[in-house]
Amino acid sequence: MRNDQTRDGEHEGDSAEREAIRFDFEEFTEVPQPVGTRLYASLYPNGQLRINPKTLAALGQPPSVILFFDPHRQVIGVKANYNGDVPHAVRIRFHTQTQIAMPVTKFLDRHGIRPAYTIRFLDPYMQDGTLILDLNRTVRVKGATAIARERAEAAARAAEKPKKIRRAY
Q1: I need a surface site. Which of 26, 53, 120, 122 has the fewest CB within 10 A?
Q2: Tens digit of pLDDT for each residue in 18-74?
Q3: In 3-26, which positions are buried (b, 16+ CB within 10 angstroms) versus exposed (e)?
Q4: CA–CA separation, 153 vs 159, rounded Å?
Q5: Distance of CA 28 to CAs 31, 76, 90, Å?
Q6: Is residue 146 domain-resident?
Q7: Number of domains into which the chain is organized
């Protein structure tokens, strides 16, 4: 046993005799807003645009939507469509109880939008009946698949490196 350790494995000076550190804590008092109560939209690399029920309600529960794109500002617009005769309207599908999906692959291809991973729009909002999705204000979504892929890649990189031999003391 080293002479700076006690029998319990503690270092000398780690006991209750340690001087207390004074912290200047500020209490966080904002009430967190549950995810289901705000507008949410994400874009998947497989060409799906997904929204939550709150966003669908803000659009007016339409059966389909019409998509718009501002190439200068890199902003997607999503507007409700109730007319079944519009050939370019995108039909809304329910992916799960909490996610509504829209296949937008052709729209993405037309405008050269190619997400390499799932992105979430940071602050989608409604303006004049149109859902505004700013491609400049997104964050990467890391789901279980992306995390597993990153771990596998890290493990493969670690296996390639020669291991250093540590000397025992």
Answers
A1: 26
A2: 788 888 888 888 877 666 678 999 999 999 999 999 999 999 999 999 999 999 999
A3: eeeeeeeeeeeeeeeeeeeeeeee
A4: 10
A5: 9, 35, 43
A6: yes
A7: 1
DSSP secondary-structure letter at 4? T
**pTM surpassing 0.70?**
no
Residue 26, domain member (yes or no): no
Backbone angles phi, psi at 51, to 5 degrees: -130, 165
Tally: H helices and E strands in the chain: 3, 11
Amino acid letter, 93? R
In a domain, 46, yes or no: yes
Domain that holds residue 97: 35-151
**Whether the Cβ atoms of residue 54 and residue 34 lie closer than 8 Å to each other:** no
